Request: fold
Amino acid sequence: MASSFLLFLLIFLSVSSFILLSESQKTSKPNRFVLQLQKDSKTKLYVTNIYKRTPSQKVPFVVDLNGRLLWVTCEKSYRSSTYHAPRCRSTQCSRADSHYCHICSTRDGPGCHNNTCGVMSMNPVTGLTAMSELAQDVLSIQSTQGSNPGPMVRVPQFLFTCAPSLLLQRGLPSTVQGVAGLGHSPISLPTQLASHFGSAGFAPTFALCLAPKGVMFFGDSPYYMLPNVDITRPLSYTPLIISPQGEYYMEVKSIKINDKDVPIDTALLSINKQSVGGTKLSTINPYTILHHSIFKAVTQFFSKELSAIPQVKPVAPFSACFNSKSFKNSRVGPGVPNIDLVLHDKHVMWRIYGANSLVEAAPGVSCLAFVDGGMKNNGASIIIGAYQMENNLVQFDMARSRLGFSSSLLFYKTSCNNFNFTAIP
Ligand SMILES: *[C@@H]1O[C@H](CO)[C@@H](O)[C@H](O)[C@H]1NC(C)=O
Ligand SMILES: *[C@@H]1O[C@H](CO)[C@@H](O)[C@H](O)[C@H]1NC(C)=O
Reply:
């Protein structure tokens, strides 16, 4: 019985891949993809809808730049005729780096089978982890030529984990059903797109363009925003550093404010073998977090450069706040001293303008949008948060091990809200 089912499955899969193949041969094979992003106003996390299962269903996920995999809760309302949990010790399990046989006694259904493989899933906000069943199902994603979404394309056997719903319990928007990891790990979303579409010429690259209605691209540039702006043109590049955990780092060598060096302990700026120190990028932290000594230096320097402007009572979690009316607005936000992250070469800088350095934390109160990370020496010294990446294109290019960054797109009379989501059939 089981073996005839397997045989059927095999025939079905080879027929369906044959159909897919002949479909894609008709036109040029899609090798670039796009996902719409939405900022959740309460948690300030970024949410994307991904089409999964059979019949296809829209499932909302939080985007975790450093997440190792895509996990979803399956306990309730997981209906799909194409769900499959690979047996433990199968090739899929070794691909997911799982050497653990999962057993489950509560019920029989997605997420709960015996002799499948167990993988840890993590809530990136709380750090809570849970053993989950490795599974496969269809994932569909919209292709693009760079300026509009095109036809949907299927990945028939996308690997993910089925996590218990308690993992959703804190820190995440109530609307989401899981987390989509973009980390440099064996079964993350970009890695699986690369292995599935590699033969179609997919470049192992993805890019974030964060904004309340932002967008995320997979595959090579160019990418266009209305009114027909190639947002990859302003990119500068710095080496992309990947930690042993598959997280994305870059090398900040110093910080300048108003073109003057901020005195900071440069020992904190390099990452060591234990992934301590250095500068990580994150979509899970709404604002950039600085190690306490860097935080103190940056805040004091910024306030000194703005000493003509009186400070007002700070709004948590910030500590330097001003009356919003004190600043003249420019195209790139309130006119305040620029903050430059000086990278591997002293001429390569990620410039942070007022739109990304000040946030209106309460009506009429604008605060320096950096948060004190405390004195702990057990993680990155700088975690570049989502607010500092908003309306900047940030490209993670694995083939060339480089990080591309555009600085503020507002300069180019566009923003990350400006992707034309009118689909071209
Ligand atoms: C898994 O095996 C255990 C022990 O043999 C059994 O009690 C349980 O019902 C099984 N679970 C499923 C989902 O079949
Ligand atoms: C968006 O794209 C569609 C399809 O190409 C096009 O018809 C429309 O004019 C575009 N929108 C704008 C504002 O340019």
The pocket of 2-acetamido-2-deoxy-beta-D-glucopyranose (ligand 2) is lined by residues 148, 226, 420, 422, 424 (CB under 6 Å). Residues 1-26 have pLDDT under 50 and may be disordered. Helices lie at 2-26, 91-95, 189-197, 292-305, 354-357, 386-389.
